[in-house]
TrEMBL record:
Protein name as it appears in the record: Citrate synthase
Keywords, sorted A to Z: Transferase
NCBIfam families for this protein: cit_synth_euk, PRK09569.1
Family statement drawn from the similarity comment of this UniProt entry: Belongs to the citrate synthase family.
PROSITE patterns (UniProt xref): CITRATE_SYNTHASE
Length: 435
């Protein structure tokens, strides 16, 4: 029974050879090009990096190591037959590219549990930050505080050879992933529950450990959390959080520094904060309805009010996707099964019929369809997590699985420091306009 590290070691050897072959065959061919508009426009669609753990198709949505979300739900081991995947299962898949056996998942769960205890100074630091700090800022501080334990930083300072760096990156990444549920839960309990902390149960899987630490005991909510932590894990390499982790890690900053940078990006309203903003907006919509039942007509009017006041409709649109996000669809299916009569879910359902039409009519958006964030808050709220400012922290716990798996591969493949070339507007005028 080979360990995760042994299996990964073999895969890395194979992949290093594969990359050599690919570079030998097509290394000098153009992968993508960049127009002046794209350079001013957030580099949208410019193909300029490789990223192994997931790939986003504009129409189909995300595939983790080639597997779609429904395939992951079918194939990845859960806590019970037919249940949602365990995030540990997805982590194994992201790291190795293989669907794990039940035994392998259990071994990984144990491994994570053995690393889960937080050092005292991390707890002390988290307990001393003002709770007026946004939970994402508290979360990021917690991550940075754990940096004192970085094996990667220590080994690098001792002169570790480049081809061994992935091992130390894996070491830190597993510890970081193992500890994030408790960091998140401390932020939650400090911010909304007067700092009264719950005991960690290390026999539980990562999702159930997290919900228990937050103060919940509901097997159905645990299943939601398993699904939630699975679907938010990775979304290929160019999104703000994944790319920040990659970029900062490329300077050989250790995984704690790199992941904290990713979380600071996830905290932005156009990225991970959208899940918080969606629920805020839904509650505003409800207030505007003032007791009237939602209809397509009154919702259309409210959507236009949002747009006309210069705001985006949160949870809709995407930089890459061009259809309904499959992460939205699987959450909708979960809701149809477990909370079909929930008032907010019914509002979300009706908005699914209204918002895309309004956005299409406005004619600006490249994609009028809902993304993952349009649905997640509704489910969390139903199970009792009513504190919207916390939602992005849960997104962050999940995002560690993908971005840190990918970071291990960055070091395994010896990717160099990232350093694209920038130009000034004056340079463009002198070299392109007049040319
Ligand atoms: N409501 C109103 N206007 C929108 C819109 C929305 N949901 N989505 C895009 N637009 C606007 C843009 O602001 C832009 O307007 P501008 O030309 O006046 O600046 C125009 O439509 C074209 O934008 P785009 O090409 O369709 O999108 P993009 O690639 O520039 O941005 C995204 C993508 C997600 C930032 C954008 O769709 C958005 O702001 N959506 C709402 C926030 C949101 O849900 N974010 C979460 C995304 C998923 C995630 O990262 N978690």
């Amino acid at each position: 029974n080979a360990s995760l590290k042994e299996i990964l070691g073999e895969k890395i050897q194979e992949m290093r050879e594969e990359v050599q072959e690919v570079r030998h065959a097509v290394g000098s061919q153009v992968l993508g090009s960049c127009t002046v508009d794209q350079a001013y426009g957030g580099m949208r669609s410019v193909k300029s990096m490789t990223y192994e753990t997931s790939l986003l198709d504009p129409n189909e949505g995300i595939r983790f190591r080639g597997y779609s979300i429904p395939e992951c739900q079918k194939l990845l081991p859960g806590i019970k037959q037919g249940g949602e995947p365990l995030p540990e299962s997805l982590l194994w898949l992201l790291l190795t590219g293989e669907i794990p056996s039940v035994q392998q998942v259990e071994a990984l769960r144990e491994e994570l549990s053995s690393r889960a205890n937080l050092p005292d100074h991390v707890k002390k630091t988290l307990n001393s930050v003002p709770i007026s700090l946004h939970p994402m800022a508290q979360f990021s501080i917690g991550i940075l505080t754990m940096q004192s334990d970085s094996v990667f930083a220590k080994e690098y300072a001792r002169g570790a050879p480049k081809n061994k760096l992935w091992e130390y990156c894996l070491e830190d990444s597993l510890t970081l992933i193992a500890r994030l549920p408790q960091v998140a839960a401390i932020v939650y309990r400090n911010t909304y529950h007067q700092g009264k902390q719950m005991e960690a149960d290390l026999k539980l899987d990562m999702a159930a450990r997290l919900t228990k630490l937050m103060g919940f005991q509901n097997p159905e909510f645990d299943e939601l959390m398993r699904l939630y932590l699975t679907i938010h894990a990775d979304h290929e390499g160019g999104n703000v959080s994944a790319h920040s982790v990659r970029l900062v890690g490329s300077a050989l900053s250790d995984p704690y520094l790199a992941f904290s940078a990713g979380m600071n990006g996830l905290a932005g309203p156009l990225h991970g904060l959208a899940n918080q903003n969606v629920l805020t907006w839904l509650l505003q919509v409800k207030e505007k309805l003032g007791g009237q039942s939602p209809t397509k007509e009154n919702l259309t009017k409210i959507c236009w009010e949002t747009l006309n006041s210069g705001n985006v409709i949160p949870g809709f649109g995407h930089a890459v996707l061009r259809r309904t996000d499959p992460r939205y669809t699987c959450q909708r299916e979960f809701a149809l099964k477990h909370l079909p009569n929930d008032e907010i879910f019914q509002l979300v359902s009706l908005l699914y019929e209204v918002v895309p039409k309004v956005l299409a009519e406005q004619g600006k958006v490249s994609n009028p369809w809902p993304n993952v964030d349009a649905h997640s808050g509704t489910l969390l709220r139903y199970y009792g997590v009513k504190e919207m400012t916390f939602y992005t922290v849960l997104f962050g716990v999940s995002r560690a699985l993908g971005t840190l798996s990918s970071l291990v591969w960055d070091r395994a493949l010896g990717l160099p420091i990232e350093r694209p070339k920038s130009v000034t507007t004056r340079w463009i005028k002198e070299n392109m306009v007049q040319a």
